[in-house]
Amino acid sequence: MTITANYLSVTLRTLAACAVGVAMSIPFLVSAEVTSPVLAINEDAATAKITVQALRGNVSVLMGSGGNIGVLSEPEGKLLVDAGIAVSKPRLKAALDGISPLPPKFLINTHWHWDHTDGNEWVHGEGATIIAHENVLKRLMDRTRVIEWGYTFPPVAPGAMPTVTYTKQKTIKFADETVVLTNHGSGHSDGDTIVYFKKADVLQLGDIFWNGHYPFIDYGAGGSIDGMIRLANVGLKQGTENTIIIPGHGPVGDRTQLREYRDMLVAIRRNISTLKKQGKSLAEIVAQKPTAKFDAKYGDYVIDPAFFILLVYTGV
Ligand SMILES: [Zn+2]
If you measure from the C-alpha of residue 279 to the centroid of ligand 1, how many angstroms do you get, rounded to a whole number? Predict the structure, then answer.
């Protein structure tokens, strides 16, 4: 199937309304269709074309299977950052083979979400050691429900679990590239890793950064709007003015786009916080369109304005 923005937004709005128990007070958020976006995204990934974009040095990005996948290709093999959706395996494998015939040696997960980790098992099967923040392993080992997606994730298979974890920082020397992994506390979730390819000067932020889209925020796993803003600021301090930035979703960007995105988060947080402090309900705040200025640019993807307002409202 083809996922349309409309399909997902209706679905997400329904789930969002249910999630906070406000469905009755926001009739326009209620729809009869309650299908998890997880299923829809998986179905889409089963046929979606994978695109390969060379960035700088030996770093490329693969797009089309859930979150963006960073690829460092060296004479020793490959290092992947995130693994996309499992059903994309044949197309991801073909795309990876197109970069080089060498197998993946390392796979780093930027966070626990399935659209970044669902491919863990097969990538591990090709020979990759999986590395992640320690909280990613905890979440992948457990049954985890994401209320806003209407979906419960079972524990992942043993072969899909990270076997190397870290807490604050970890450096991997791979051929003549240095890959620095850092966790700066919770933002999108409680296990966010920022990956910096030092020599290539490429930064991969996972779902801290959705370039041109309102982001999801995983409150159930320790995420928050304030954490998102804080980590966007951390990302702006990494690298150089010329750093190429791979977002979790959306096209590859740079500091200018990350700055605009950070400013958007700050402005919407301020607007919603002000209205909430005035005693306004979520329905009243949605009706006042506190995101209006940004909707044309950021509101046309899986997280639509009403859903993003809910996410911010929850955290202020
Ligand atoms: Zn995510």
Answer: 31
Considering its fold, how many domains does the chain have in total? 1
Q: CA 142, 67, 202, 245: dihedral to nearest 10 degrees?
A: -120
| Backbone dihedral angles phi then psi of residue 303, each to the nearest 5 degrees | -100, 105
Q: Could you tell me the residue range of the domain that residue 40 belongs to?
A: 5-314
Distance 216 CA to ligand 1 centre (A): 7
Residue 278 CA, ligand 1 centroid: distance in Å:
31
Determine the distance separating the centroid of ligand 1 and the alpha carbon of 176, expressed in angstroms.
Answer: 30
CA angle 27, 29, 30 (to 5 degrees): 70
C-alpha 217 – ligand 1 centre gap (Å): 7
Q: How far is the CA of 21 from the centre of ligand 1 (A)?
A: 23
Is the pTM higher than 0.85? The answer reads yes
Give tens-digit pLDDT for 179-235. Answer: 999 999 999 999 999 999 999 999 999 999 999 999 999 999 999 999 999 999 999
Q: How many angstroms separate the most distant Cα atoms in the chain?
A: 60
Quote the tokens at residue 285: 């705040």
CATH number of the domain that 25 lies in? Answer: 3.60.15.10
The alpha carbon of 34 and the centre of ligand 1 are apart by a number of angstroms equal to 21
pLDDT at 35: 67
Report the C-alpha gap between 28 and 26 in whole angstroms.
6
Residue 284's contacts (CB-CB under 8 Å, 6 or more residues apart) are 275
